[in-house]
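Researcher: For the annotation table, I need structure tokens for Peptide-methionine (R)-S-oxide reductase. Please keep the output clean. Sequence:
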Amino acid sequence: MYCRSRILCLTREILPLRNKIDYIKIRTMSQGESADFKADLKKRLSPIQYHVTQEKGTERAFTGKFNKTTEAGLYTCVVCNETLFTSETKFDSGCGWPAFNDVIDQKKVKLTTDTSNGMIRTEVQCGKCDAHLGHVFKDGPPPTGRRFCINSASMNFHPINQEK
């Protein structure tokens, strides 16, 4: 297996595939089952996590727990545990939310047009479960020039021991 970095190579070691079955269930639900799934999410997620991921909300700037995180590791979707970002692409943009200049794999996210609040932006959703993550802008650093501005409430962080 080709790896772009040590962190990406270690991904399979620290993240279980336990949610693969849950993902299949998410994609094949009836309306009644979908309501049950949403009720389960309300129990499993904190109010801010639910608001951000399911209602396309935004946490207040500079309040997210991962805004200043500099530790090496992986960021996963809080809903389905899909690996989305690595600390290698994280940077301090000063915007008040965790910022990344790239995703681990383009297939891991969906980019859609968001015209809410009188603006035209590009929304970032989890490619696996459609959870709202944040937005992407074209003002990031090289080499991509993109700034994925992601709500901490939409992610979990998995530190990687650098001594392996």
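Researcher: And a one-line annotation?
Model: The chain has one domain: 17-159.
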